[in-house]
Design a protein that fits this description.
Elements: H1 3-16, H2 19-26, H3 30-44, E1 49-51, E2 56-58, H4 60-83, E3 92-98, H5 100-117, E4 121-127, E5 141-145, E6 154-161, E7 163-167, H6 169-175, E8 190-192, E9 198-202, E10 209-213, E11 217-219, H7 222-230, E12 236-239, H8 240-249, E13 253-254, E14 264-270, H9 278-290
Parallel strand pairs: 3-4, 3-5, 8-11
Antiparallel strand pairs: 1-2, 5-14, 6-14, 7-12, 7-13, 9-10
Helix pairs in contact: 1-2, 1-3, 1-4, 2-3, 5-9
Length: 312
């Protein structure tokens, strides 16, 4: 009885959402994986997976069992890493999620370099501008740019995400350059589609000032917002990894850069596990070195005073 093989097969099917993809990840045949899952369910006396012609989904019992299985496999990997070759060369599939724009601009080259230095790993990267459930969707690491609430997940700060208010010089030439935060209310704002309304915070000699804004134009993607700005359609708050090249080239101009208080943090979120797999730990160390508090995409941009970094 190959109990470990059964657990590996079940975990792979749960993560991949199907037998064929799981078999490919494990280097086994689809029939072998199916046989192992059937053997596991018969031994346990419960159905772990609901199968249809289109998809495979976890049952309620299967979802609970999946978390226990992950813990067992992580413990086993940690034990092997402590005494074997995997301590130096991590192997297996590493599933990573990230926002679309940041993944494409800020992470692509970094992840490519990481994969090149770790040939035993197989990266599976999903870029999406939606909330990703780290546990339910089976990710090892999900990168988020936000002020994170308290959570049962584990978050490691990778670095700073600097944000700037900006607009095309042609727009500011025609509509005026705001000299005070309150003047922003007189300008059209380009914002994200999910924002029904938001506030921008500013620092001042007489204290902080908050300006509520309502976007006139909206998009669900930062690259589209940038394009709207370049066409002179208003002012937007953008991260420097997206707007940095345009700011350096003069295609966009910062608005009230010495007053804005909008920096946030870049986080790597992982499921709460007793032991962190070496492949995940190595990736986090790599990303911290690449992102950091002074990332490459901020080079050459003027620096405004800013508050203490968010988070630990």
């Amino acid at each position: 009885m190959d109990r470990l093989g059964e657990l590996e097969a079940f975990s792979a099917v749960a993560d991949a959402g199907g037998f064929t993809a799981a078999a490919r990840d494990l280097g086994r045949t689809t029939s072998a994986v199916s046989k192992q899952i059937r053997s596991l369910e018969e031994r346990l006396g419960v159905r772990l997976l609901n199968r249809t012609t289109r998809r495979v989904a976890l049952t309620e019992v299967g979802a609970a069992f999946r978390e226990r299985v992950r813990g067992v496999l992580d413990e086993l990997e940690a034990a092997e890493l402590a005494v074997g070759r995997l301590q130096e060369e991590p192997r297996g599939v590493l599933r990573i999620g990230a926002p679309m724009d940041f993944g494409r601009i800020g992470l692509a080259r970094s992840l490519a370099g990481f994969a090149a230095r770790n040939p035993g790993l197989r990266l599976q990267v999903e870029l999406a501008d939606r909330f990703v459930d780290v546990v339910e969707e089976g990710f090892d690491v999900v990168v988020r740019i936000a002020n994170l609430p308290d959570s049962s997940l584990v978050a490691r700060r990778l670095g700073r995400c600097r944000r700037v208010l900006c607009a095309a010089p042609s727009y500011l030439d025609g509509h005026g350059r705001p000299a005070r935060p309150a003047e922003l209310r007189e300008h059209p704002v380009v914002g994200y589609a999910y924002e029904q309304g938001r506030s921008w915070s500013f620092r001042g000699e007489e204290g902080d000032e908050v300006v509520a804004v309502e976007p006139r134009h909206r998009a669900n993607n930062g690259e589209m917002i940038r394009s709207l700005l370049l066409e002179g359609l208003g002012i937007a708050l953008l991260p420097t990894f997206l707007a940095g090249d345009d700011l350096r080239a003069g295609r966009l101009e910062a608005v009230l850069p010495d007053r804005l208080d909008a920096d946030t943090a870049i986080w790597a979120v992982t499921p709460h596990r007793k032991l962190l797999a070496t492949k995940v730990r190595l990736l986090l160390d790599h990303l911290v070195a690449d992102c950091g508090e002074e990332p490459a995409w901020d080079e050459g941009l003027s620096e405004a005073p800013r508050p203490e970094p968010l988070g630990p």
